[in-house]
Design a protein that fits this description.
Rossmann fold, about 325 residues, 14 helices, five-stranded parallel sheet, globular, alpha/beta
């Protein structure tokens, strides 16, 4: 392919070198291995002149940006979440949006369960206790937490990741699994997963551990707030691997301080990478920096899927995981 005829692609953050090499076989690639961050006008100026952009779930693409980047034809997120995309505005502008679902399901489910275990069994508290030199003798109640096996898990959001967590819970830990979802699974799926649909209030009241796996939207904003936390058992734990904003972080911090729930495990936060200061001070909060999909094989698969979408779009007029496929038809 003649260099002058190749589409120009911007990769907005550092990524695997081998993925960049794949992209360079098809495109003129501008990478950002130095990790420069752009925002506001600088972001719009950086994006101008590119035919496609490889994004990481945080770079805002909306009508205002698109109006100043008329050459742009595709935005390929490396993440499954796409809150950074105004998909309606992109569709109106004829710009394809893609994301990276499926490839991170099992890894994210693993991490959700790891966070649940760490939260229930007070793993991080124990490590801090040991490192601070406070372990002087054994006591029957030293850092005693909650059991996970044989207890009741409530899953809010029963998509691919929620179902993968349900399998681990029922088959691996003998847990009773309750779930609440916008649409109920069919009877065969429920039987396979050994999961029971209940309304949200029932789930919150009965679950020993509540795990959130819903996408973020206007409908799920502060899905768990002060009122919902008050419905949970005082001995219960809350784990959020969904999105920041699904939980009212200020209300959760207060509930932890007041002992209205026992503990929380959070991988996502409102306004991340900023974290509510009261959560940082809560000893019964396990906090991780949005790393649920962070295994090397999974992150490589996510990056390659984003690359696949860019390559398929410009070479075949197709995409593996289009969010607005009507753009392809058009």
């Amino acid at each position: 392919m003649d260099l002058s005829s190749k589409p120009h692609i911007l990769v907005t953050q550092p990524v695997f070198d081998e993925v960049l090499e794949r992209l360079r076989q098809y495109f003129v690639v501008t990478d950002n291995q130095a990790g420069v961050q752009w925002s506001g006008d600088a972001w719009v100026q950086r994006l101008q002149g590119f035919d496609g952009v490889f994004t990481f779930g945080v770079e805002r693409i909306d009508a205002a940006v698109l109006a100043q980047c008329p050459r742009l034809r595709i935005c390929a997120n490396m993440t499954v979440g796409y809150n950074n995309f105004d998909v309606d505005a992109m569709t109106a502008a004829g710009v394809l949006a893609t994301n990276a679902p499926d490839v991170l399901t099992e890894t994210t489910a693993d991490f959700g369960f790891a966070l649940l275990l760490a939260t229930a069994r007070r793993v991080c508290e124990g490590e801090r206790f040991l490192r601070a030199g406070q372990w002087q003798r054994w006591r029957y109640d030293m850092l005693a937490g909650a059991d996970v096996h044989g207890t009741t898990l409530g899953i809010i959001g029963m998509g691919r990741i929620g179902q993968a967590i349900a399998r681990r819970a029922a088959l691996g830990f003998g847990m009773r699994v309750l779930y609440h979802n916008r649409s109920r699974l069919d009877a065969a799926q429920e039987a396979t997963l050994q999961a029971q649909w209940v309304d949200k209030a029932t789930l919150l009241a009965q679950a020993d551990h509540v795990l959130l796996v819903v996408p973020y939207s206007a409908q799920t904003h502060h899905l768990i707030g002060a009122a919902e936390l008050a419905q949970m058992k005082p001995s219960a734990t809350l784990v959020n691997i969904a999105r920041g904003g699904v939980v009212d972080d200020a209300a959760l911090a207060q509930a932890l301080v007041d002992g209205r729930i026992a503990a929380a495990g959070l991988d996502v936060f409102e306004g991340e990478p900023a974290v509510h200061p009261a959560l940082l001070q809560a000893p019964n909060a396990v906090l991780t920096p949005h790393i649920a999909s962070a295994s090397i094989p999974t992150r490589r698969a996510m990056a390659n899927l984003a690359a696949d979408n860019l390559i398929a779009f410009f070479t075949q007029g197709q995409a593996r995981t289009a969010l607005n496929p009507q753009v392809l038809v058009r």
